[in-house]
Amino acid sequence: MEPECPRGLLPRPCRVLVLLNPQGGKGKALQLFQSRVQPFLEEAEITFKLILTERKNHARELVCAEELGHWDALAVMSGDGLMHEVVNGLMERPDWETAIQKPLCSLPGGSGNALAASVNHYAGYEQVTNEDLLINCTLLLCRRRLSPMNLLSLHTASGLRLYSVLSLSWGFVADVDLESEKYRRLGEIRFTVGTFFRLASLRIYQGQLAYLPVGTVASKRPASTLVQKGVFSVDGELMVCEAVQGQVHPNYLWMVCGSRDAPSGRDSRRGPPPEEP
């Protein structure tokens, strides 16, 4: 039986499953992994299995069926959308309560890398982009330190439930995010191009925002339907629905981040967990 690793650290040697989208960003993710990431992993005694995703939701399907006990962490190399797939795939598993505690690592290789940039900032590194950001995040994986991270659960008026680790946007921001997909080959500049096109043809968005102050008991009434067939962007992924309700679950999953040790104890989660999917 292997010795138990401290809750705030990955073991040494470490086994990592790497999910990589070869079409992410400018289509250079695989080349960057081989030239920038792989040498660091080998030097840090991190063994890995690399899987290239082939279609939308492929990563989601893979983590639903994967034997997670073979791996100490899951590394996702692409933009924010692939991490969204992985988290939702973990939450769809029958053993989701255990699966969602598998440490996750974000390796930026897409056009939108906001999660990796946030982790980089949280770790105390200077703000960087592109290959410098990728190297920083790779070094965080090599350092093996873990930090807890919040999970946002979203409910739609139609009954759909999904999970987010980054953002929920609606209106102008969601339109720019989703409509700029056609410019993916431009890399992160696609968002600037998309913004100019949307500014040139502004739309009017009608909706209603409601919130509960901290400590208020949640209402049992269904979500408002005043947002008619709204287009939302969840971690960069498209969602069309009438209304959305969200709840934040503090410290619910583990992210590879070299900033600080995780809280002591085997279960550091605070607050009620999400209902079973």
Annotate the secondary structure layout:
Layout: E1 14-20, H1 29-43, E2 46-52, H2 58-65, E3 73-78, H3 80-91, H4 96-99, E4 104-108, H5 114-122, H6 130-143, E5 146-156, E6 161-164, E7 168-170, H7 172-179, H8 190-200, E8 230-234, E9 237-241, E10 244-256
Parallel strand pairs: 1-2, 1-3, 3-4
Antiparallel strand pairs: 5-6, 5-10, 7-8, 8-9
Helix pairs in contact: 1-6, 2-3, 5-6, 7-8
GO molecular function: ATP binding; sphingosine kinase activity
Organism: Mus musculus
EC number: 2.7.1.91
How would you briefly describe this protein structure?
By secondary structure, the chain is of the alpha/beta class. Helix content is about 30%, strand content about 25%. β8 and β9 form a beta hairpin.
What CATH first level of the largest domain would be assigned? Alpha Beta
Instruction: Count all strands and give the number.
Output: 10
Strand coverage percent? 15-25%
Give the number of domains: 2
Q: CATH-wise, what's the superfamily of the largest domain?
A: Probable inorganic polyphosphate/atp-NAD kinase, domain 1
CATH topology group of the largest domain = Rossmann fold
Average pLDDT, all residues: 82
What is the first-to-last residue Cα distance?
Answer: 32 Å
Q: Which series of helices and strands comes N to C?
A: EHEHEHHEHHEEEHHEEE
- Structural Rg: 19 Å
The biggest beta sheet reads: 4 strands, parallel
How are strands sequenced across the largest beta sheet? 2-1-3-4
Give the number of helices: 8
**Which regions contain 5 or more consecutive residues with pLDDT less than 50?**
1-6, 221-228, 260-272
Indicate the CATH architecture of the largest domain: 3-Layer(aba) Sandwich
Net shape:
globular
Q: Helix content range of the residues, please? A: 25-40%
Helix-and-strand structural type: alpha/beta
Pfam families: DAGK_cat
Domain DAGKc: 11-158
Keywords: ATP-binding, Kinase, Membrane, Nucleotide-binding, Transferase
Organism: Mus musculus (Mouse)
